[in-house]
């Protein structure tokens, strides 16, 4: 027969074992997240199946799994599972930050603002809160700027159509007066037709969108964030440079606001940038956007 004293010892032993096991498990997740930051994606993916079998409901393992998923929407489901089912977990603030970042990057400003408010109320002391706030501000400013540009383009197109209609009407009236169909032909003078065509210059003239310097050859990078503070952007650049990554800041005018885009890499073409996207995503824990320099 088990005495009360012996029962208490058994219970205490179980509690201690559980606590030590949880601590070891948490450290293991930390180690794998560190490996992701170092670009060791394959090593983490190799270890994941066993972790998911041993700890299928552990929020740290769920976060680790989400971090290696390329599809941002599928990763989002797992981050939401963490904050919903494990709100007191040490991984909750990481998950909240990634949820806000996801909505900010895809331009869903309504959900970005909503999730940011939840994040502030649940994790007021989170180290990622400032970056999350900057990401939402940048997303809102960008969406407003894009909407203004679209409205201007539509207005210009509408005015062009009105002008075109007036010209057509004027031409038809002239045709009736002349009693014949008018055919508009553009004739090239003989001197011009024999002249050699002007060689195109090497530089391509493009509209300046205010995002970084323009180069003669098209090069690409992966934008991992846009910040309202140059100091914040610079701290992010230094972080990635310590990981031996090429990282630079590109000033960006978003509406009336001066923003700063952090761009990883210097790729010769789109294909090279796309191949690097998965690796960069695991390091920034975000959804990188293709950026033409």
Topology of this structure?
Blueprint: H1 4-37, H2 41-54, H3 59-67, H4 72-85, H5 92-106, H6 109-122, H7 129-178, H8 190-194, E1 220-227, H9 230-242, E2 247-254, E3 257-267, H10 270-284, E4 289-292
Antiparallel strand pairs: 1-3, 1-4, 2-3
Helix pairs in contact: 1-3, 2-3, 3-4, 4-5, 5-6, 5-7, 6-7
Structure, explained:
The protein is α+β, with helices and mostly antiparallel strands and 293 residues long. It has two domains: 40-164, Serine Threonine Protein Phosphatase 5, Tetratricopeptide repeat (Alpha Horseshoe), CATH 1.25.40; 208-293, Alpha-Beta Plaits, CATH 3.30.70. 62% of the residues lie in helices and 11% in strands. It is built from ten helices and four strands, in the order ααααααααβαββαβ. A four-stranded antiparallel beta sheet has the order 2-3-1-4. A hairpin with a 2-residue loop joins β2 (247-254) and β3. α4 (72-85) runs antiparallel to α5 (92-106). The longest helix is centred in the middle third of the chain and has 50 residues, at 129-178. The radius of gyration is 29 Å and the shape is elongated. The termini are far apart.
Helix content: 55-70%
- In terms of quaternary structure, what is this? single chain
Query: What is the succession of H and E elements?
Result: HHHHHHHHEHEEHE
Spatial ordering of strands, largest sheet: 2-3-1-4
The CATH architecture of the largest domain is: Alpha Horseshoe
Mean pLDDT: 74
Query: Cα-atom Rg, whole angstroms?
Result: 29 Å
What is the terminal separation in angstroms? 77 Å
In total, how many domains does the architecture comprise?
2
Strand content: 5-15%
Category from helices, strands and their pairing:
alpha+beta
CATH-derived topology of the largest domain: Serine Threonine Protein Phosphatase 5, Tetratricopeptide repeat
Number of strands: 4
Shape: elongated
Continuous helix count:
10
Write out the CATH superfamily name of the largest domain: Tetratricopeptide repeat domain
């Amino acid at each position: 027969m088990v005495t009360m004293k012996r029962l208490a010892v058994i219970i205490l032993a179980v509690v201690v074992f559980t606590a030590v096991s949880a601590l070891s498990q948490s450290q293991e997740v930390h180690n794998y997240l560190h490996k992701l930051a170092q670009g060791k994606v394959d090593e983490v993916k190799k270890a994941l199946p066993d972790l998911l079998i041993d700890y299928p409901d552990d929020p740290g393992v769920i976060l680790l799994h989400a971090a290696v998923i390329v599809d941002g929407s599928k990763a989002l489901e797992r981050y939401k599972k963490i904050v919903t089912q494990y709100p007191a977990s040490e991984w909750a603030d990481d998950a909240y930050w990634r949820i806000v970042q996801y909505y900010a990057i895809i331009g869903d400003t309504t959900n970005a603002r909503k999730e940011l408010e939840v994040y502030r109320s649940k994790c007021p002391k989170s180290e990622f809160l400032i970056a999350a706030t900057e990401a939402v501000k940048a997303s809102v400013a960008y969406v407003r700027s894009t909407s203004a540009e679209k409205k201007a383009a539509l207005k210009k197109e509408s005015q062009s159509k009105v002008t075109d209609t007036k010209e057509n009407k004027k031409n038809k009236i002239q045709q009736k007066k002349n009693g014949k169909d008018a055919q508009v032909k553009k004739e090239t003078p003989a001197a011009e037709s024999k002249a050699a065509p002007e060689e195109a210059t090497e530089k391509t003239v493009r509209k300046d969108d205010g995002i970084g310097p323009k180069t003669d050859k098209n090069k690409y990078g992966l934008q991992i964030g846009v910040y309202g503070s140059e100091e914040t952007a610079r701290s992010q650049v230094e972080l990635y440079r310590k990981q031996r990554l090429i990282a630079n800041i590109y000033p960006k005018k978003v509406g009336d606001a001066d923003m700063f885009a952090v761009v990883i890499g210097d790729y010769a073409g789109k294909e090279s940038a796309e191949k690097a996207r998965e690796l960069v995503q695991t390091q920034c824990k975000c959804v990188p956007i293709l950026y033409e320099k």
